[in-house]
Amino acid sequence: MAAVLRFLIAVLLFSSIATASLSQEEEEFSEELLLKPLADRKVLAHFHFESKAPPTRTYGHHHRLFPKALYQLVQKFRIREMELSFTQGRWNYERWGGFDPISSSNAKPPGVELWAVFDVPHDLVDASWKNLTHTLSGLFCASINFLESSTAYSAPDWGFQPFSGSLRYGSLPREAVCTENLTPWLKLLPCRDKAGLATLMDRPSIYRGFYHSQRLRLSSTEFGSTEVESGIALDQTLTVVLQPTTSHRASMTYSSDSVLQPSWSLSSIFGRKVSGRCVLANSSNVYVQVERGLMSELKILHAEDEGSGADNLTFEKTWNNPGFELSIAPNRVIKEVNILHDETSIVLYEYLIDNYSNSEPFDLGFTWKFPVVWSSPQAPLHASRFLMGSGNERGAIAISLKATEPSDGLWFADTIENSCMLRFNVFQVVPWYVRVYFHTLQVFVDGKPQSVTDFIERMRISPSEDKVSPGVMEMALKLPCCVKSVTLTLEFDKV
Ligand SMILES: *[C@@H]1O[C@H](CO)[C@@H](O)[C@H](O)[C@H]1NC(C)=O
Ligand SMILES: *[C@@H]1O[C@H](CO)[C@@H](O)[C@H](O)[C@H]1NC(C)=O
Ligand SMILES: *[C@@H]1O[C@H](CO)[C@@H](O)[C@H](O)[C@H]1NC(C)=O
Ligand SMILES: *[C@@H]1O[C@H](CO)[C@@H](O)[C@H](O)[C@H]1NC(C)=O
After folding, report:
1. Among 8, 76, 308, 468, which lies 20 to 30 A Cα-Cα from 255?
2. Which of 302, 312, 317, 343 is the pocket-test mutation for ligand 3 (most atoms within 8 Å of CB)?
3. How many distinct structural domains can be found in the chain?
């Protein structure tokens, strides 16, 4: 049953800065790939393709870059925002980190997930959703139309995304994700997978991965509901976690008894190289990201290597250091500016793909020279959900939130006792055949029962209806940062 239930937690630590993009005059397409060595010997590859079309009011609808099918979708259903994702495997928060604003801050659960915000009167939102799921299943994959059924989707008010009334959310957690889902998604790119970074998407390599999540996100200002008219933006991302094959060198043991991480290159993980950018792309870049934890380990290595007088700034600018070596010199090194972590920062090595070609393809290699052990930054809370009581018919659902090690120190920034507060939302959808007794809600803080109102700032419950609609619970919690664990329990019967 746990797989049927959906649970999402939005940690509202970084208040997302609204990007008030200026009204643009031209269409634009950019492609980028971020590669990141993970602490558990795997590699993260995060592809991001962005297409932007200027507002119809000023530009018309003759698009060269923006996919026509999606432009029509936005117009027909008056979509303000929409996200569709296909995910296979579970994101491993502990090993791969839970706090990387660049690639993994919003890891998706397995299966198909769709949400959309419509710019239509509230009484038309359900009809628009149904028609949209119908059209999407023609565009992408036949199963999306299962989300048409009122038992399969819900109408969160604010707990999921801050839109009131006009948002619908549905998921198919058991849906198997396969190559058939990728093909229509690639067709939306101006060069498809025939040129540019998408040529790396070799199906067997990607589907062999430990996790992959393919997403499509649309946002538009076409219907005058926002002050800034920026047109339509389409973001397509594909996140994959791959295991580079271990070469014989990696089995060598070092004095510290640790094992060298497997080295990799684009051709070794994807079986392909990049023979130039997509000619229609306004920019085409590849980034290698070195996490803060790895950077600080490398810094220690470097200091041991060069003596204590080592120049730290120069060190971070090098792509050939005591820990690893990149086969190509980057065009630029970008260092995170973070006042809370002035000692070590995330470093990005940037490569421009402009000048590569068939005769000189881009095949970046990452070679480890010394075994390095590090850990990824963790999200402030680890969330889990389980059932209590005997049998499946009657029992209780528990949602448990545990503070992770304060590795990032962010929420301890404020040292004055009790003034540091952690705010987050819990959004829980329950299938109609599980009757949850919401009045039985109990809150345990650090194991002790507490008054619900002391920690819950806001709550909205919409009970399930037999064979009609699922139950939805939205909750805004506010906790002092010193709290170690919070458990919410609710009793239920299974119909
Ligand atoms: C992006 O490139 C396309 C095709 O080459 C071009 O038509 C368009 O003007 C460019 N857009 C911007 C914002 O530079
Ligand atoms: C949904 O589709 C039906 C049948 O094609 C149509 O009659 C109706 O107007 C559509 N509603 C919306 C809100 O798009
Ligand atoms: C550079 O590294 C040395 C040795 O690790 C350290 O003592 C010093 O504070 C660092 N300097 C800066 C500016 O980070
Ligand atoms: C690409 O080649 C052009 C022409 O030779 C040159 O001006 C430009 O700087 C090169 N770009 C990069 C990123 O190397």
Report:
1. 308
2. 312
3. 2
